[in-house]
Amino acid sequence: MDELLPFLVFAGALAAVLGSFFWLASRVRRRGLAGAAMQAAMASYDEAFRVTAHDSYYEIQAQVERQAPMAAPDDPWRPLRDRPGSRPGAGSTRTRTPRRRRRWRALGR
């Protein structure tokens, strides 16, 4: 029994540590505190070990913070697909196809 005691103590301590981590993770998720902290931790890891990923992180953050250019109040109205800076075909997903004509004579029979 004496040789089994260190393993039981180790297993108990490991279970206590993992249980406290589980409790802490659930508390952080419930309060919504994990988003910014994890994002900052991953950014510092990328800065240290993967420089290109770190540069991409800051570029993505700059793109998120950018705002779309707003039209001046005296500019004439244009649909979204005709505005400068919009991608081609952004306004409408419908393709232009010729309409079929109805045959009114066939309906009268």
Main structural class: mainly alpha
Q: Distance N terminus to C terminus?
A: 100 Å
Helix content: 55-70%
Contiguous uncertain segments of 5+ residues: none
Average pLDDT, to the nearest integer?
Answer: 76
What is the percentage of strand-forming residues? under 5%
Overall form: elongated
Report on this structure.
The structure is a single chain. 57% of the residues lie in helices and 0% in strands. It is mainly α and 109 residues long. The longest helix is centred in the first third of the chain and has 27 residues, at 5-31. The model has no long low-confidence stretch (mean pLDDT 76).
Index terms:
109 residues, mainly alpha, 4 helices, 57% helix, elongated, transmembrane, transmembrane helix, Secreted protein, membrane
List the helices and strands and how they pair.
Blueprint (H helix, E strand, L loop, with lengths): L4 H27 L2 H16 L1 H15 L38 H4 L2
Helix pairs in contact: 2-3
Protein name: Secreted protein
Keywords: Membrane, Transmembrane, Transmembrane helix
